[in-house]
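Bench notes, bay 3.
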Amino acid sequence: MLITIEGVDGAGKHTLARGLCDAWTDSGLEVLSMGFPRYGESMHADLAAEALQGEHGDLASSVYGMAAMFALDRHDAARDLRRLINRTDIVLLDRYAASNAAYSAARLHESAQGKVVEWVKALEFERFAIPVPDVQLLLNIPVAVAAARAKSREQLDATRRRDSYELDGDLQQRTADVYSALAAANWVSPWRVVDGDVDTTQLAAQLVNKPSDQVEVTP
């Protein structure tokens, strides 16, 4: 299975991923976890990250340009990702193509039915043929809470300096709204909405034993 975790910056995706991986490993499953963008591994991801810190001229101002950089990161990883899915019980990803769709739409003040969301879908899943997730998890956390976590993380770790997306509270709220609409529409594949207090052991079992074919909200 390929399972992805989505959510705004600071939502707690890494914590959720760790809890799910621990639960699956304890049950005897082979699990591999990775995240996108692949900073430090992908030239495209690193260029995008540098642009978000003010480098590379006006690259960061181009919504489609930045989305293409993030998409190319996944394109470069697609072959290895397919191989890992075939050899591993579960591959869990922290962010995937839905992040590109949600943030791009939010930057353009478009809805989940807008042109850029369709463009991301066509580019990543059709032209680049990246693997389609079996389930996409939306970690639904209040934007103000997520922003406070991101700020605290930056204060505790000098290497986790927030980029221009993370510093824009209005962008984060618009992104959260697009995410909710993508989940409601089961964009690309089935979605499941969870909150920060979700029981990861229970969720891990549910995802493996009965993947959803429609949006579910897990308290």
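Next record in the batch:
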Amino acid sequence: MIDAVGARPRPRVEGGREEEILEATVTVLAELGYDRLTMDAVATMAKASKATLYRRWSTKADLVVDAISRAKGCPMPEDVDTGSLRGDLIAMSCGDGGFTDEVPMSVIAGLVTALHRDADLQKAFRERFLAPRQGISAGVYTRAVARGEIAPDADIEMLSVTLPAVIVHQAYILGEQPTEELILRVIDHIILPAARGSQAR
């Protein structure tokens, strides 16, 4: 099998060891942050050899992005269709892998500063972690447009990043763990009124 850039993927670790290594990577990342995370630290946590890690992941960035994309502690939010924009946003944001999930938020906190300095990490993070989640969000707003919940003059691009932007501000600027109450306030007082566009004014 050939990957997106034409290179053959490295062999997977046999059995359940790969998942154990990914889980260990998430744990170390949450505890130490990206800069202090090392292959040695992950190998120790996973009770594996560094050789095992390097056979599967050539760099720390490869391992970390694979871990946060696939490990059980960072599940992909489900692509839900509740029949309304409000329902979809709540289900997507408050369930497993959503903003109220403590593990993913602590993990992303360990990457925030490194993403600004490490171009390879940033590229891999955008393509393999953010892009699938942005695809789910795009689907939510596309369905809302089809249902007529979003006015023609509403800025959908800005709408789609508003909730994540507020959550990031709360978590990484104010140091407050996102709550379901906060998510509902943003949805009900910012996103839904904005979605109605000039109809709400």
